[in-house]
Amino acid sequence: MSSPLPYTSESDALEQAAAHERNGDFDAALKIYLTLAQNDPEAIDSKYRAGTALMRRGDLEDAVTLLRQVVFAAPDHLPARTNLGNALLLLGQSEPARDAFVAVLDLDPGNRNALFGLATILIRLGDPGRALPLTARLLQVLPDSAAALTLDADARAPHGDTAGAIAQYRHALRVDPQYLPALKGLADTLYHQNRLQEAESYARRAIERQKDDPELLALLGAILMAREDWPAAVEALGAAFDRDSNNPAPLVQMSLACRRSGDLAGAIHHAQRAWTLAPMDKTAGNALGAALAAAGEAKGAREVLMAGGDRSKLPAHLWSGLGALQARLLEDEAKAREEALQATAAATFEADDAAPEYRAPEQGDQDIPAAEPVQAEEDGRRQTPWETTGEPETLPLFPED
């Protein structure tokens, strides 16, 4: 049953809906569009506008339903085909989205939305070579677009043109210094080029823009691991996991960072958490095996390896005993730190005790010859005795012949 509209005509209703959109009241506009579409199932324009409004609001599946109806009724309706492709792309349905964009480009080879969407899909599908001609066409239309420049760089990097990708990312950031995809892409590309200091700088700039992005935090963690800054890497990776607690990868990397820094209890702990989260994840099992081997638990490491990444094949006693092992390792580490502190204190005391006692010179003492200049190692130059003892040397007023 159709709903009545409080407007004198359809054109009046569309005009009012457009006014709502200009004012940012998309819900009010959507209500009008949906009512028009229900009143007249063949109202193509109203269905298109309703589908587009739904997509903007994030109701992607409902948007796809309406936009498909428009495309079925009017195959040459390019805006509907383009938005259908966009909605499908946002839903992660790459194949049907690609088909929608191809259909648009067959009718309009210069359509910017379709060029951008199809290139994005090809990059995601691992075919950057086919994306490059599309990004080149897009840049002919939008030569100074940060989004188009970044997309071109995204295609160049996996295709092997690293220098070109870096140049395009930098160009995009000159256009828009805060453009997040360019910051992220440049940081990732520099990381893979082992230009770690630059990569960290751009990653941190990106995180300032989007603090809760787990991919950015994981990238920063990977960069810090490559720089062997283990505590900072663990912190970044822990933040990545906190924001995506269904992904065991940051935990695996945290285990590796702890193991390389000598924190074997932490290495076991994080690997155990990763394998708990993903019991069939071989990388998590390997991380636990490596941590056990580093802790001297060769038998446990072999049993983990024999499980082949399937935690259910691990002996129950080994899994249940990991907590006690971590506690023992923590005690051993604390004991080692205490012994090191005691050894340092003892060495300092012995050095002080061995120093000769100072005695003021007495009458009758023989003159003590002046010390010879000594060679200094600190800065590569020769030091005079007053520089090493703190006492000034008596210098002649004029050089001797």
Explain the overall architecture.
By secondary structure, this protein is mainly alpha-helical. Among the domains are: 11-108, Tetratricopeptide repeat domain (Serine Threonine Protein Phosphatase 5, Tetratricopeptide repeat), CATH 1.25.40; 251-334, Serine Threonine Protein Phosphatase 5, Tetratricopeptide repeat. It is built from 21 helices and 2 strands. It has helices spanning 10-22, 26-39, 44-57, 60-73, 78-90, 94-107, 112-124, 128-141, 146-159, 162-175, 180-192, 196-209, 214-226, 230-243, 249-261, 264-277, 282-294, 298-306, 316-320, 322-354, 385-389; strands spanning 374-375, 382-383. Strands 1-2 form a two-stranded antiparallel ribbon. β1 (374-375) and β2 form a beta hairpin. α12 packs antiparallel against α13 (214-226). The protein is elongated. It starts with 9 loop residues before the first helix and ends in a 12-residue tail after the last helix. Residues 365-401 have low confidence and may be disordered. Residues 347-401 are annotated as: Disordered. It holds the Pfam family TPR_19. TPR repeats lie at residues 44-77, 78-111. This is Tetratricopeptide repeat protein. It comes from Stappia taiwanensis.
